[in-house]
Amino acid sequence: MILSASSVHALRAVAWLAAHENGEAMLGRDLARQVNVPADYLSKVLATLARGGVLTASRGVKGGYRLARPASRIRLIEVVLPFEGKRAIPGCLLRPGHPCRESGACSAHPAWGRVKDTYTAFLEKTTIAQIKGGS
Amino acid sequence: MILSASSVHALRAVAWLAAHENGEAMLGRDLARQVNVPADYLSKVLATLARGGVLTASRGVKGGYRLARPASRIRLIEVVLPFEGKRAIPGCLLRPGHPCRESGACSAHPAWGRVKDTYTAFLEKTTIAQIKGGS
DNA sequence: GGTATTATGGACATACGTGTCCATAATCCT
DNA sequence: AGGATTATGGACACGTATGTCCATAATACC
């Protein structure tokens, strides 16, 4: 249920970036201060997001970070996946990693299936634009 | 979203115990084999469950583990809480650990709140009896 | 071209979850 | 009482997430 600290850092940073876009790139250290995350650690997170195509990074004087696309076209799953890995898509309750087919033996599925589907739908359908007001 | 390995071990063990109750106590090593978990590690998990009042443990020749109550009166949250800690009850998406009030500023709440509530309701209302068929 | 500025990357430290190994305590049976 | 059986607890090993520190590469500005 709980996202890793890196995932939360990433979400907070991207959401803040989306809420304060003004055409200029944002410095890593400013972003770290605004989002209240250690700057040296956030820089790694941001680099990962840049490699993943969510952010664009530029070095030098007028450098910093920007969203690679409008916030309405960035889904939470894209931000979170590099840090959560396969754990982002939950499987069977009692057999993590297994596909968890509805028809099967596990009687936990009726209840667990709803949780699982609600969660995955949240990550796959929610966009950064719907989050950016949050803090 | 993902429960810790210890929580899953605990759920599997308790569910298996519930599905195979026959009046006799079950040996830790047999339980470990059935549930496919390292015996020396599962023993710690089972000890925690016994301390938590979910299981009763008895030593000696006819010893082993039993459910402390009928499976229909053991809720998943009781099994999982000792291993998940406060993480078992998710908070605000972008501020883990915060109460996450609906009225507040965070625009993630409409979508995230449903996920959160579905998850906590699952843990608090589902009983072992509804799980024990699973494997 | 040179210098300041910024992101990038590597090395390292720490904490914790998971797992292993072994000695000890409690209990049952003869 | 004594020995076999079983759970309990402590010490240790290992990998990974998180976080820190510092050198290096890329870029803008003069």
Q: Return Rg of chain A in Å.
A: 17 Å
Helix content of chain A: 40-55%
Number of strands of chain A: 2
Low-confidence stretches of chain A: none
Level-2 CATH architecture of the domain at 5-87 in chain A: Orthogonal Bundle
Distance between the termini of chain A: 19 Å
Largest sheet of chain A: 2 strands, antiparallel
> N-to-C SSE series of chain A?
HHHEEHH
Secondary structure category of chain A: mainly alpha
Number of helices of chain A: 5
* Protein chains sharing the most extensive interface: A-B, 35 and 34 residues
CATH topology (fold) name of the domain at 5-87 in chain A: Arc Repressor Mutant, subunit A
Q: Say which CATH homologous superfamily of the domain at 5-87 in chain A is assigned.
A: Winged helix-like DNA-binding domain superfamily/Winged helix DNA-binding domain
Name the shape of chain A in a single word.
elongated
Query: In terms of quaternary structure, what is this?
Result: homodimer
| Overall mean confidence score, pLDDT of chain A | 91
**Sheet with the most strands: spatial strand order of chain A:** 1-2
β content of chain A, as a range? 5-15%
CATH class membership of the domain at 5-87 in chain A: Mainly Alpha
